[in-house]
Amino acid sequence: MRGQINVDVLVVGSGAAGLSAAVTAALGGASVLVAEKESVIGGTSAWSGGWLWIPRNPLAREEGIEEEPGSPLTYLRHEMDGEPADARLLAYLQYGPEMIDFFPPPHRRAVSFRQQNARFSRFTGRCAGRPLGHGAAF
């Protein structure tokens, strides 16, 4: 493509984060361009079938699945061999559910989430086999 395109927001990548950012900007009135290097959209989200691991998300709560606030961090520490949680991980656990809530009706037409809470952990050990209760899929 040649020439110049003027937009308010340029999003690089079409994964879950990029497309969520693009929709958010567009809903706010910005002109948006999503640039993707691959011939298909989805980014690394496509590897998971669009499934997002968002503990304590509102879709799980709507299904009656409630978790203790510390459960997701316990699970992650187990999977990370006891490594301490850094600020990014804590922010993910705190703000992930808010991200799902950010797209309530009627905006769920633009970013559609559906509950995926019947899954079980694929991992073995102390935290294995219980319902995860935090799935959301695009």
TrEMBL record:
It holds the Pfam family FAD_binding_2. It comes from the Bacteria. InterPro entries: FAD-dep_OxRdtase_2_FAD-bd (IPR003953), FAD-oxidoreductase_2 (IPR050315), FAD/NAD-bd_sf (IPR036188). It is an enzyme of class 1 (oxidoreductase). Its cofactor is FAD. The keyword Secreted does not apply. This is Succinate dehydrogenase/fumarate reductase. The lineage of its organism: Bacteria, Pseudomonadati, Pseudomonadota, Gammaproteobacteria, Enterobacterales.
